[in-house]
Amino acid sequence: MKDENQDGTQAIRRAAAILKQIAHVSGDAPMNLRNISEAVGLPRSTTHRILKSLTDTGLAAYNPASRKYEVGMLSYELGLAVSDRVLELAPWTACVDRVAERSNVTTYLMRRSGFEAVCVHKAEGRAVIRVIPVEVGQRRYLGVGAGATALLAGLPDDTAERVIATIAPELDVFESLDADTVREAVAETRATGFSESRGRAYRSIYGLGMGVRAFAEEPDLAISIAVHTEEVDDARIATWKSIIREEIEATRTRIAAR
């Protein structure tokens, strides 16, 4: 969070970083004042002052029962504004819906945002027990989870390595993740075309993802699913891979035909 500017742009950057951190998923770490200030590298007094302004304006909210900060209703309302870029995502949100319907498991659309992946759409399958490791609007580091790993694997080698070096200190909150396991997952994803997360980010969850080149040269979107590990076998994985691949190709065909 170091910034040479001492004018209003510094305050804006700090507020944006704090909002992103509130929406970030880091294992079981609560989004309280201490964790937020440590994550953005600011003194608690400064962080508290910015959080106070964010909650006063409705961009953030504070839950006194849990003592945790959350994304505020104003942030949600602003996110509802329709723009051309939002409309361009529509074919891919529909793709996620179709994957969920065919696979019967929770399916996500993840978008690359710096060294993070943000969930921009979620569709639940018809399974009785559903897996929700990330909600719409929440963020996680590239390499954490199947969709985020698919996005990381699509980056050039030097860029991917810089991302891994940046996030490595933050991986301690996940008991089965470190820089080396992320590198191994990236190599496997590049070899197979699919990222698989077998309990790396969350012990009891299996994730499967595939990167999509939608608006950039490297994959900027990823379609991923999440399911309890006890529901997974080789036959189901093969079926899920086919569904994801087929729906991505069908979506590309629809877009090209417009």
Automatic annotation (TrEMBL):
- Record domain HTH iclR-type: where: 9-73
UniProt xrefs under Gene3D superfamilies: 3.30.450.40, Winged helix-like DNA-binding domain superfamily/Winged helix DNA-binding domain
Entry keyword set = DNA-binding, Transcription, Transcription regulation
Q: Per UniProt, what is one GO molecular function of this protein? A: DNA binding
IclR-ED domain: which residues?
Answer: 74-258
PROSITE patterns xref list: HTH_ICLR, ICLR_ED
What is one Gene Ontology biological process annotated in the Swiss-Prot or TrEMBL record?
A: negative regulation of DNA-templated transcription
Family matches, as Pfam families: HTH_IclR, IclR_C
Q: What is this protein called?
A: Helix-turn-helix domain-containing protein
Its lineage reads: Bacteria, Pseudomonadati, Pseudomonadota, Alphaproteobacteria, Rhodobacterales
